[in-house]
Amino acid sequence: MRELRQNGFAHLVLLVGIGILLFPLYMAFIGSTHDAATIGRGRLPLTPGSHMVENYLQAWNYGTGERVAGTPVRIMMANSLAMALAIAVGKIVVSVLAAYAVVFFRFPGRTFFFWLIFLTLMLPLEVRIIPSYKVASDLGLLDSFAGLILPLLVSATGTLLFRQVFLTVPRELLDAAKIDGAGPLRILVSVIVPLSRPSLAALFVILFVYGWNQYLWPLLITTDPKMNTIVIGIVKMLGTSEAMMDWNLVMATTVMALGVPVAVVLLLQRWLVKGLVETEK
């Protein structure tokens, strides 16, 4: 009975926390179903309105309301999706190759290069943003997907994670693959990567959300409205005074922006948890 009360209290606290977190999102959804006048009066009800389809279609196709002129959400979400996918896949590829070289190859300076990668954890993009922008500008990467993606591709965190994963791979498997005539690339693709699937999926989810939520770098590197990401688009929609804002379109855009990363997390939830909690890694 005592254990039941303890579990009940823990679940109650969990439900209260979930309610506190979800209520603002629920109100954003409710706001996206009403017209701007209802929200402007400050009497937003707790039930959905009748303008849901109208608001979402207007935000998706035009991004422009009575008071705000913006970029269509479909363009901004396409930009964010391309950026997030490229960053996630690119970081994983670079991290896997770097960790594979550090763990399974013997070459002069191997330890030095590993610690050099480790030290870059203290130099995130926000710290080196001015030289990074200068390099991107000199290479003509402004207002381009290459400029959005390339400076964010290298991940010391991913390299460290995969290094620990690869250290758990039995050497006997590698020796058996070598006896069968497999080269380094074949061993990586056929032996190492399949054994690392949970970690790959977990890191993909984390990096996808990281890429989707990027704000500072896209804000600096892009000036063309057609290159706006969804986060930049929402911020620009909020750039005017409250009286000059179409809150219904802002909230509809916010709900759609939340949908993609939430869907990715839900679809890969099992792999995410498995990759983060496996004790041998």
Tell me about this structure.
- The model has no long low-confidence stretch (mean pLDDT 83).
- It is globular, with a radius of gyration of 23 Å.
- The chain has a domain at 74-225 and 269-277: MetI-like (MetI-like fold, Orthogonal Bundle).
- α4 (73-104) packs across α8 (156-167), α4 (73-104) packs across α11 (197-212) and α13 (230-237) packs antiparallel against α14.
- The protein contains 15 helices and no strands.
- Helices cover 69% and strands 0% of the residues.
- The protein starts with a helix and ends with a helix.
- The chain has 281 residues and is mostly helical.
Outline of this structure?
The chain is an all-alpha fold. It has helices spanning 2-31, 36-40, 52-61, 73-104, 110-119, 129-138, 145-149, 156-167, 171-179, 184-195, 197-212, 216-221, 230-237, 247-267, 269-277. It has a domain at 74-225 and 269-277: MetI-like (MetI-like fold, Orthogonal Bundle).
